[in-house]
Design goal:
Largest sheet: 11 strands, mixed
Structural class: alpha+beta
Number of strands: 37
Radius of gyration: 28 Å
Shape: elongated
Number of helices: 14
Distance between the termini: 65 Å
Strand order of the largest sheet: 28-27-32-33-34-35-36-37-25-26-31
Length: about 775
């Protein structure tokens, strides 16, 4: 039957009473550019940052059924659920409209993921009211109440292709007709909906009746599900990569639909195209903008206008639970290209508003009820697809739960639909003066040198992330610990590359395996990362096969679009691997490294970048080529290979004499010392007395960072081991204390969270 139109409104006074208003909330900083996390507000000059903080959460049971005919007869069974279900499933929300009175119109997508399994799913928008659980003794029920709904239909017989309910009077639309993903309410109350099968823009009246024929993409762009796709015609938009995100601007006359994914054949598969649609003229204006995603596989899940030319954009990966990497809200400005980079591709500037994997939860809202619900709240769902800025300035986010398929919170149990309110609260920044470097990312928790490991290090409050850098055959720098990749990727399982296995001499040592310099980037992208130390870190093997080998550009991009826990830019600490060897095969590292740093706006001593190397010659070369800081790595044995190759008798021990350190200070800003160089171990495995090297380095003006601090017993001095089990965790904090007491300025750690906690405990 006909339901309520989507015209529900409320007075501002009612909205203020019903929404979760908080003095000093994000509204206080919204007087500047919305979402600007660096805006110091009235306390300019003081040391403050904005901390995402959970204010309220409400959920709708995954198993909730709305009135209507049975649905899900063809849906895939998952998590103990099998259709058909006796009513209309609500599989989460892909778009929302804020009514301003504490209620929202919330729109699911096409139902169960494809045309073939969604013919019994009715396209609707639901009127919902969350009763927020706010914690702290002020709890609401924490439930989302479904009050009403509007069904979308083609009662005016506008469409010129057959629909599921072709012969009915109401001509209700289903998930086999359209895949609706975004919605905008115009000033006249009509609805503009972005969908993916076309991709089309659909124009409905306030009661859900289609007013006009679908507006197709210009240039004949069509997805594989487009009803106008001719036999034999090649689709030019990938399936399920249509208008997931769309926002209005300029008084609502213009819409800005965003393609969720890259177009096939685009030379940059990280490009997402934003288009402008004129609702008065009913046509695209021809103006477009380019957005660059963090990774090729990321999708854009929602858009919300926060200014004349500025929007919040949800960018997410397709992973869930602990495997999640990107669940973010960025702000973009169509009037600005990326001011941080000189490369000139014309991508819109984007700035982090919210990393939804790290939200403080001081009130313990729903803590302990599933993954990501604890002292820190995370939204680790696959389909993070809703963002709104509420009228008091705070952020509302939500999810599509792809019922019954997603189980991010509790494995085996379908995810509920969530609505969450987050505030950006002002927190005082405290600089402890000690640098924590996520060694190859948080490699104690995720396979090393993956964006997952780097993101985990950022979530664990590292100041820097460390990519080791090696080249591909086509000269692209990628992050791997070594150029030999049999231990860090699944290359051995790829029979198409069996003939690439070979033996090479690297820095005087014969190494057999597969090497990055024998693969193009495109070939390397077909591989997936695996845990390098599966016996030591068996938990990390759960992530084997999920992540690609990242490029250095992607790592730099992640860092410059991220913030530390203190609101500072995340630093990058790249290491050049085997520079003498790569010089010998015509793949020198220095020029492409400097090019990538420059392309990402890193060209000054003030920038959060430190380039490190075990060799001396390439650091001297880099000293002439870039102004970023440099660090000489020093091992407790052996010699820099460039000196060995040149017949120079100096060893690492010579480099850390007083005269050696003075020479390093001519071209570098710091030293990265192996732990035994600073505090050697006794014969029984315990720590001995500190050497004078830290003091001597400081006297020459060099900072001292130590490597590598790991939690497992086999890596710890004997007095800090917890047991005889080499893989069990011992007292890493105790070891760190000993080195910090000796004067070390920073630490490379596989477990940044432990390192940060140890430093916090010293305050």
């Amino acid at each position: 039957m006909r339901r309520s139109p989507l015209l529900r409104t409320a007075a501002a006074g009612t909205a203020a009473a019903l929404l979760l208003t908080t003095a000093g909330s994000a509204a206080a900083v919204a007087g500047g550019r919305p979402g600007d996390r660096h805006d110091p507000g009235p306390q300019a000059g003081s040391s403050w940052h904005l901390e995402p903080t959970l204010e309220g959460r409400a959920t709708l049971s995954a198993d909730f059924l709305a009135e209507g005919p049975a649905s899900g007869a063809q849906a895939s069974a998952a998590n103990g659920r099998q259709g058909p279900w006796d009513g209309q499933v609500i599989p989460g929300f892909s778009a929302m409209i804020d009514n301003g009175d504490g209620t929202f119109w919330a729109q699911p997508d096409n139902g169960f993921g494809s045309k073939g399994n969604s013919a019994d799913f009715l396209l609707r928008s639901y009127l919902v009211e969350p009763d927020w659980d706010t914690g702290g003794g002020r709890d609401g029920s924490g439930e989302i109440e479904v009050l009403d709904h509007v069904s979308y239909d083609d009662a005016n017989d506008v469409l010129d292709f057959d629909i599921v309910h072709e012969g009915s009077d109401e001509r209700l639309l289903t998930g086999a007709d359209f895949d609706i993903e975004s919605v905008v309410r115009a000033d006249d109350g009509t609805l503009w909906v972005g969908e993916e099968f076309g991709p089309f823009l659909l124009h409905f009246d306030a009661e859900g009746t289609l007013l006009e024929k679908p507006f197709p993409l210009p240039g004949g762009l069509k997805s594989p599900q487009n009803p106008y796709l001719d036999d034999g015609e090649e689709p030019t938009v990938r399936a399920s990569r249509g208008f997931e995100a769309m926002a209005p601007a300029r008084g609502g006359r213009y819409l800005y639909p965003v393609l969720e994914g890259a177009l096939p054949g685009d030379d940059d598969q990280r490009r997402r195209v934003i288009r402008e649609f004129d609702t008065r003229r009913g046509e695209y204006t021809g103006r477009t903008w380019d957005y660059q995603a963090d990774q090729e596989g990321n999708v854009l899940g929602d858009a919300f206008a926060v200014g004349k030319d500025s929007f919040w954009i949800v960018e997410r990966d397709d992973l869930e639970g602990p495997a999640s990497v990107t669940k973010r809200v960025y702000e973009i400005d169509l009037s600005e290209t990326d001011r941080d980079t000189p490369r000139g591709e014309g991508y819109v500037r984007k700035e982090l508003v919210l990393d939804a994997l790290r939200v403080e939860n001081p009130r313990g809202i729903d803590a302990g009820e599933g993954y990501g619900l604890g002292e820190t709240y995370a939204l680790p769902v696959q389909s993070f697809e809703t963002v709104l800025r509420l009228r008091d300035g705070r952020i509302l986010v939500g999810n599509d739960n792809n019922y019954p398929g997603n189980a991010a919170r509790n494995p085996g149990t379908p995810d509920d639909t969530e609505m969450v309110v987050i505030d950006l609260e002002r927190e005082r920044t405290r600089d402890d003066g000690i640098t924590v470097v996520g060694h190859r990312g948080a490699s104690g928790y995720r396979p090393e040198h993956t964006l997952a490991a780097y993101e985990q290090a950022i979530l664990q409050c590292a100041d820097y992330i460390e990519p080791d850098v090696v080249p591909t055959s086509d000269g692209v720098l990628v992050a791997r610990h070594e150029n030999e990749i049999s231990g860090t990727t699944d290359v051995a399982d790829h029979t198409e590359f069996a003939d690439r296995r070979t033996t090479k001499t690297i820095d005087g040592t014969a190494v057999t395996g597969w090497f990055t310099e024998d693969f193009t980037l495109a070939e390397l992208r077909t591989l997936r990362a695996v845990e390098r130390l599966p016996q030591v870190r068996p938990g990390n093997t759960a992530f084997d096969g999920l992540y690609q080998v990242p490029t250095l550009d992607e790592v730099l991009d992640l860092a410059r679009h991220s913030e530390t826990c203190d609101g500072e830019p995340v630093g990058v600490y790249p290491e050049t691997k085997h520079p003498t060897y790569f010089d010998s095969v015509g793949l020198s590292l220095e020029a492409p490294l400097v090019e990538q740093l420059d392309a990402n706006g890193f060209d000054s001593r003030r920038d959060p970048v430190i380039v490190q190397s075990f060799e001396t010659g390439n650091l001297r070369e880099l000293d002439d080529a870039t102004d970023v800081r440099l660090a000489q790595l020093v091992s407790s044995s052996g010699a820099p290979y460039d000196l060995v190759a040149a017949g120079d008798p100096r060893t690492y021990a010579d480099l850390v004499t007083r005269s050696g350190l003075r020479e390093i200070a001519r071209y570098a800003d710091g030293v990265g010392l192996e732990k035994n160089v600073m505090i050697p171990r006794e014969a029984d495995g315990t720590l001995g007395e500190p050497t004078p090297v830290i003091r001597d380095a400081h006297r020459t003006g060099l900072e001292v960072h130590g490597w590598t601090f790991r939690a497992e017993n086999q890596f710890l001095p004997a007095e800090f081991r917890s047991s005889a089990d080499p893989a069990a965790h011992g007292d890493l904090a105790g070891e760190l204390d000993a080195f910090l007491d000796a004067g070390m300025d920073g630490a490379f750690s596989d477990h940044p969270d432990v390192a940060v906690a140890a430093i916090e405990a010293r305050r």
